[in-house]
Amino acid sequence: MAATTPGATWWKGAGGPLLPPVAEVPAGGGGTQEEARRTDGSGRDEATKGASGMSPDLRTRLGDVELANPIMTAAGCAGAGRELAQFFDVARIGAVVTKSVMLEPRAGRPAPRMAETPSGMLSAIGLQGPGIEVFLQRDLPWLLARGGRAVVSIAGGSAEEYAELARRLSMAPGVTMIEINLSSPNLADRGRDFTEDPAAAARVVRVVRASARSDIPVFAKLSSDVPDLVGLATACAEAGADGLSMINTVRGMAIDTATMRPAVAGGTGGLSGPAIRPIAIACVYRVHAALPDVPIIGMGGVRTGSDALEFLLAGASAVAVGTVIFHDPSACVRILREFEEALEERGVARVGDLIGAAHRPLGATALR
Amino acid sequence: MAATTPGATWWKGAGGPLLPPVAEVPAGGGGTQEEARRTDGSGRDEATKGASGMSPDLRTRLGDVELANPIMTAAGCAGAGRELAQFFDVARIGAVVTKSVMLEPRAGRPAPRMAETPSGMLSAIGLQGPGIEVFLQRDLPWLLARGGRAVVSIAGGSAEEYAELARRLSMAPGVTMIEINLSSPNLADRGRDFTEDPAAAARVVRVVRASARSDIPVFAKLSSDVPDLVGLATACAEAGADGLSMINTVRGMAIDTATMRPAVAGGTGGLSGPAIRPIAIACVYRVHAALPDVPIIGMGGVRTGSDALEFLLAGASAVAVGTVIFHDPSACVRILREFEEALEERGVARVGDLIGAAHRPLGATALR
Amino acid sequence: MSDFRPVQMRSPVLTVRRVDAYHAITVVAPGIAERFRSGQFVAVAVGGEQSSMLLRRAFAIHEVKPDYGGTVEFLFAVRGRGTAWLAERRSRDLLDIVGPLGRPFPLPRDPVNCVLVGGGAGAAPLFPLAHTLRRRGCRVDFVLGAADAERVFGAITARRVAETATFTTDDGSFGLRGQVTEVLPQVVEDARSDVIYACGPMPMLREVTALAARYDIPVQVSVEETMACGTGVCMTCVIPVIGDDGITRMTRSCVDGPVFRGERVRFDDVGTIPFDALGAPGWKTHGDDAVQTREAG
Amino acid sequence: MSDFRPVQMRSPVLTVRRVDAYHAITVVAPGIAERFRSGQFVAVAVGGEQSSMLLRRAFAIHEVKPDYGGTVEFLFAVRGRGTAWLAERRSRDLLDIVGPLGRPFPLPRDPVNCVLVGGGAGAAPLFPLAHTLRRRGCRVDFVLGAADAERVFGAITARRVAETATFTTDDGSFGLRGQVTEVLPQVVEDARSDVIYACGPMPMLREVTALAARYDIPVQVSVEETMACGTGVCMTCVIPVIGDDGITRMTRSCVDGPVFRGERVRFDDVGTIPFDALGAPGWKTHGDDAVQTREAG
Ligand SMILES: Cc1cc2nc3c(=O)[nH]c(=O)nc-3n(C[C@H](O)[C@H](O)[C@H](O)COP(=O)(O)OP(=O)(O)OC[C@H]3O[C@@H](n4cnc5c(N)ncnc54)[C@H](O)[C@@H]3O)c2cc1C
Ligand SMILES: Cc1cc2nc3c(=O)[nH]c(=O)nc-3n(C[C@H](O)[C@H](O)[C@H](O)COP(=O)(O)OP(=O)(O)OC[C@H]3O[C@@H](n4cnc5c(N)ncnc54)[C@H](O)[C@@H]3O)c2cc1C
Ligand SMILES: Cc1cc2nc3c(=O)[nH]c(=O)nc-3n(C[C@H](O)[C@H](O)[C@H](O)COP(=O)(O)O)c2cc1C
Ligand SMILES: Cc1cc2nc3c(=O)[nH]c(=O)nc-3n(C[C@H](O)[C@H](O)[C@H](O)COP(=O)(O)O)c2cc1C
Ligand code: FES
Ligand code: FES
User: Fold this and answer.
1) For residue C59, what are the contacts with CB-CB under 8 A and spacing of at least 6?
2) With contact defined as beta carbons under 8 Å apart, do D223 and D229 qualify?
3) Is residue D183 part of a domain?
4) Domains of chain A and any CATH numbers
5) Among A78, A284, B83, D39, fewest CB within 10 Å belongs to which?
């Protein structure tokens, strides 16, 4: 019908979005990447400014990878960095964790997909995404060209799908890490997700670790809604996970008192935001106590630099910011700044000194 | 030393609290109870005022018991009603659920016992209380004399302790219901709590049901932090529970970023308040779907009348208000008023029509 | 390009006014005012720094002015907690505001006849559009509807700016009794409209779009889907929209909209995943019938 | 009796002032003002209706006045989120406030010599007490300490009301350098004090209590324990206190305090459950060594 519309010719911009949110950057070129770093990377200098001994050393290690600082985005809350680049330089933060990518395009769940809850939200997106091909062609190169570190989250319906995704990602240059989103329905198990069965989760981790390039750390992302979190974490670590990400959203529900129906289509959704932070902290603390050598990316309701600090003290080596990005699109850089200030105030020289400090006996908490 | 203090004689009120929060009411006497009803029970009339067909019928059934309305206090958040009576007439609400009572006095956990979290709080009180004897002598008679309906929460370290508590309560007149707090450490199971083992939980329910007077409904209170909530709920119902209360607090933790130690002594605490409401709603919805004939007292973050409505739509027959009482000591009557207004706005004639309405197919939600 | 990027600012409130059933807030926000194009919106944080309300509220920009370096006005009806909080703001309070967001109304190249159709507060973005169209020499006709007289917004402005202004109310308390779609055909015929712009509830947009098809004229609709972020990262605001390639995609209404070509929106399928949408269950080789994710994502 | 019951009200803010390092808020709250006795406090809801901060903040009542039917003033230092929000209030804002709460300072029957010892903002409740004591013909001496000059509160009032007023600061920027407990013995001896009233941090209260024992005079201390409800229902504010029967109980400082007889408070055991406290692990026949509850309760 559009073609037969007489007026269709005189639109200034017909059809598609008029406003690509940011200028297109030619994909993949190493030179472009350098250029982008030089022009836009100033923030990175700011983050380490005055490193004359006064500023804390913000670097953190996740497996074999070192990040400039421990603040990342959480999967599914920042796309692949492109929209947020309107608000800050994505190269300034430790890494961008992408929305979980699957092999094929996926339309996700029907609307309504979300409801606001006290200090949190319920969501049920259903892993909508364009699939790995578009991701590799369009999203990943864009992020790399901007100088961002890419942690790619993957989701599948079977261990084989996960393995295939890891293989494809390993062939593309520039992937810093892979995060396995295990909260995806296992098609062989009537849709129960992989975190509900430690053996299935371990199998996914094992095949991904085997398929991914060896210099790419593989992190397994866990949910707190499991019978035995430490058991699951141990199973993943033993299957070869280089680290753990936790937590995913918590199972929740809201009823719309006007329609008297569940507020999110399909009934339950995932609860996220500051409301769940105490649950996330408890998980990180418990798993770090059991597996002190396994690095953890902590997430769940990080809103301020002090919240990020809380996760590190509980045992995380880095933190990811999710829902709060919806509230404040510049949250990641604000949190990074607040976090750095918090370290300065406390005279903490190195991020590494903080990790798990809340576990140490009272006398030992004094930091250099 | 106090005795040797020369000035000790000239204090207006020496030693104990100067201000008993409210006038003492002679314990137990039926006449007094009637009197208290007549003088203070005006609120009750208000709640059912204009029952000329316009006002909704707020009565609700919990097993064999009928309550005047579905708003109750949550265990441990209202003492035995005495302190709140300074702010409203405790006879106006459906029932007062008392702080869990144990056989012996209990000092509870060391301070700090709480931390504020976004839209919630963490607490670890450790079941501090005076023990059943003092409860029966002092607290229960006070509540009954004021015309309050007493739902007594009990906690023990073994099935036998629970049974003994039920026996003692059954001998006292005036107990409306017994709520079994199963989130108490099972001494025979290295302190794991009873909800973590459905068989142990069922055993407690069975002996309590056997020991309690047959006209006193027994509700089992569950936590959401269990491997299989529906399984646990089913086990409790099959063991004779007349209904279920859910949810207890959710395991959580906060780290004090100043001291770098857990904010609550002992590390983890229980998360409560509006933050956990979506978790609680999901639990009530799920259990009601599985066991539609088992009445549920819903709780977890009820702050407004609309929140109470949400729990009823999810499948609860009554709701309990906990943490929000700390925020607003008159919360229960405010919520009752808001709840009644919400029903009027929606033209709902009977509370009973709402229970579980969110489960019905779309067309069926229209209410008479 | 940087001109088009939305900005985030803490903007001082200049005035809070009542306009019939609505509240109008004007903030000082030069960055937003200078980038603004008709049809775009702002996303406002509500409840203050320790708010329990995490999600921003979206409001169409109703007017921008050059005063104080640039001001932005939006208007709103109190619906829930967030708008209740906004209604209590006073001048000099600060609002955390992001904008301008979204795809603006495409403008005709030539001075054609435009009819602007709005429902209730949904009419707000049509006013800056009307001014712009007039500046370009277009003829503007207004059709505004609402539940009652109080909720008809901007009648005086509409009369001033437009060639004709037709009003409808559900209760007949102002203008004609009925729906805007009942009077629209007459207006289109009388004004020999070349294009329709419409803002309002989905059912209205669907009917307006059907009507435009009947008259074979283009229609641009601005949808109002629930949004969590407004900036394109959360994927909560999707509706099924047909792309240039004929393929239906679950499309974000915050960045790819809120303005869409009416005929591209699959109104009847809003709230569902159409079976033929890109990546719908069964869409490709994958037999993933169990698409219920337990977790978000 | 009903005179003593606390009330809950939405009180309009009359004034917000800066007083050195502190903020002073005066609200119109007749019900609270008329019931007030020195040493009592109010519990204030913070963050507005959609606040993420659920717990009330406790503040000692610093002054009540008969204006507008009764006003109540409290003063505070900004420490965290809640006090930061309070500091931003303006006149005519409404505060949800509960009070008066807690056990007031017991008053001597006879006109005896009283020394009032306070640290920082902790000194606030001593001022209404001083006025009351003066009205009863008591001699009042003040000893006020703080970190620095800015944090010494009420020096002028203290000088006016009291026979003598001695000040200490940690940095020596005002009065004597050092702690209140260093100067207190001299004051007690010079003034021939019959009783001590003290407000401030636990370590200070402990030392003041020890000092009172040495002089064999009674001491009333006002403690500042973290509180969730302020009304006696949550059991978060307990400290070990020895009862008339000699038994130590975990005692609520909100309703059984905040004022206690100093010698009854087991300062050294604050933050623990003393082994001999009523219901402590192993206290009775029960071998319940596993007292760690997983859940609250
Ligand atoms: C692009 C766009 C432009 C809009 N322009 C206007 C306008 O100019 N004037 C006006 O009055 N309203 C407008 N709305 C609707 C406005 O966003 C909602 O009325 C407002 O978010 C309701 O917030 P609340 O806190 O009062 O309601 P609540 O019910 O408390 O909101 C809860 C959550 O749902 C979301 N939500 C609720 N209703 C809507 C809705 N209708 N649309 C989108 N999100 C919703 C809120 O953003 C919030 O996240 C617009 C919406 C969109 C998407
Ligand atoms: C009986 C009593 C009287 C008090 N009188 C005064 C006074 O007159 N002036 C004054 O400045 N302060 C007073 N305080 C301390 C005051 O309550 C705290 O400074 C205030 O609660 C801190 O709130 P926040 O939101 O800034 O801190 P946050 O750290 O954000 O508070 C988090 C939680 O901890 C509680 N909390 C934190 N610090 C304290 C504390 N020191 N005491 C009790 N609870 C605390 C808060 O109530 C809140 O629940 C008094 C405390 C008590 C118990
Ligand atoms: C809208 C939304 C989408 C999400 N999508 C994903 C996803 O694709 N993959 C994933 O592993 N986690 C996803 N998550 C979970 C987040 O990454 C994060 O684990 C969780 O939200 C807790 O962090 P937060 O409280 O900071 O949001 C999503 C969360 C939200 C709210
Ligand atoms: C301070 C505190 C004490 C509690 N004590 C008990 C208790 O003694 N017994 C019990 O069954 N639940 C206890 N609970 C749990 C509450 O009854 C309720 O299940 C939970 O807090 C969720 O409701 P809420 O969010 O409305 O507080 C306690 C909760 C709090 C916050
Ligand atoms: S509102 Fe978040 S993507 Fe549109
Ligand atoms: S603060 Fe709640 S009992 Fe004292």
Assistant:
1) C41, C42, C44, C74, C75, C76, C124
2) no
3) yes
4) 60-110+127-256+272-358 (3.20.20.70)
5) B83
pLDDT tens string D190-222: 999 999 999 999 999 999 999 999 999 999 999
Is the CB of residue B362 less than 8 Å away from at least one CB of chain C? no
Q: What is the pTM of this model?
A: 0.91
- Structurally, chain C folds into a number of domains equal to 3
How near does any CA of chain D get to the CA of C237, in Å?
24
Q: Where are the alpha helices (DSSP H) in chain B?
A: 30-40, 42-47, 132-134, 140-145, 159-171, 198-211, 229-238, 277-290, 305-314, 324-327, 331-345, 351-354
CB atoms within 10 A of CB B266: 16
Is-contact B346 B310, C-beta < 8 A? Answer: no
Shortest CA distance to A15 belongs to which of C145, D138, C265? C265
CATH number of the CATH domain containing C129: 3.40.50.80
Residue type, D178: G
Cβ A277 vs Cβ B118: under 8 Å: yes
Residue closest to B86 by CA, chosen among C41, D101, D83, C94: D101
For position C283, what pLDDT does the model report?
62
Residue D280 sits in the same domain as residue D215 = no
CB hemisphere CA count around C177 (13 angstroms) = 3
C-alpha A13/C-alpha A15 separation (Å) is: 7
Catalytic residue among A153, A158, A183, A184: A184
3-class SS of residue C100: strand
A52 is catalytic: no
Q: Is D148 contained in some domain?
A: yes
Cα of B326 to ligand 4 centre, how many Å?
11
Residue C297 has pLDDT above 80, yes or no: no
Q: C139-146 and C113-119: which strand pairing?
A: parallel
State ipTM: 0.92
Is residue D116 within 8 Å of D162, Cβ to Cβ? yes
* Nearest Cα residue to D103 out of D170, D6, D28: D6
For A202, list phi and psi in degrees, rounded to 5. Answer: -65, -35
The single-letter DSSP state of residue B185 is B
What's the gap in Å between C236 CA and the centre of ligand 2?
A: 40
In the chain, the amino acid numbered A144 is L
Q: Are strands B96-97 and B150-154 parallel, antiparallel or unpaired?
A: parallel
- β partners of residue A256: A261
Q: Which residue ranges in chain D fall short of pLDDT 70?
A: 1-3, 283-297
SS3 per-residue string spanning B71-133:
EEECCCCCCCCCCHHHCCCHHHCCEEECCCECCCCECCCCCCCEEEECCEEEECCCCCECCHH
Chain A touched by B313 (CB under 8 Å) = yes
Q: What secondary structure letter does DSSP report for B59?
A: -
Same structural domain, C124 and C200: yes
Least confident of B22-26, B185-189, D80-84: B22-26
Check whether residue C123 and residue C188 sit in a common domain.
yes
Q: For residue C281, what pLDDT is reported?
A: 85
Q: At C240, which helix (H) or strand (E)? A: strand C238-242
Smallest CA–CA separation between A105 and chain D, in Å? 38
Whether residues C86 and C147 share a domain: the answer is: no
Same domain, D118 and D219: yes
Distance of CA B341 to the CA centre of its chain: 23
Cβ of residue A359 closer than 8 Å to a chain C Cβ = no
Query: Domain check: are D87 and D174 in the same one?
Result: no
For residue C75, the domain's CATH number is 2.40.30.10
B185 vs D292: CB contact, 8 Å cut-off? yes
Question: Smallest Cα–Cα separation from B80: which of B100, B98, B92?
Answer: B98
Residue (of A303, A258, A330) closest to A83 by Cα position: A330
Among candidate residues C142, C148, C122, C297, the one with its CA nearest the CA of residue C225? C122
Q: Which domain does C241 fall in, by range?
A: 228-297
